[in-house]
Design brief:
The protein has one helix and five strands; from the N terminus they run βββββα. The chain has 72 residues and is an alpha+beta fold. The chain has a domain at 14-50. Bound molecules: zinc ion. Zinc ion is lined by residues 12, 14-15, 17, 39, 41-42, 44.
Length: 72
C-alpha cells in the first residue's frame, strides 16, 4: 500500500503565485492565522487559498480565468 501524502500548499488568490512570505505586521497580534500571507509576486496581503499540491494548476487556471473576465 502506498502511503498517501497530503501536501497542502498556499496559492495567491490574485495572481496564483505560491511565492509567499509571512506578513510582519501580524506579529504584534501574537501570531498570524496560518493562511494570512504576503504574496512575493503581486504584493497581495490576506488569506491565501489552501489547496492540495496536485491541484495547484487547477486553482491557478481558475484565477487566470477570473482575471480575464475582469479585464474583459
Ligand atoms: Zn500574488
Amino acid at each position: 500500500m502506498k502511503n498517501k501524502k497530503q501536501t497542502k500548499i498556499l496559492v495567491c488568490p490574485r495572481c496564483g503565485s505560491t511565492n509567499w512570505k509571512v506578513p510582519m505586521y501580524f506579529d504584534q497580534f501574537g501570531g498570524p492565522p496560518t493562511e494570512i500571507k504576503n504574496c512575493g509576486d503581486c504584493g497581495f496581503k490576506g488569506p491565501f487559498i489552501e489547496t492540495d499540491i496536485e491541484k495547484v494548476k487547477e486553482v491557478q487556471d481558475k484565477i487566470k480565468e477570473n482575471k480575464e473576465e475582469e479585464v474583459g
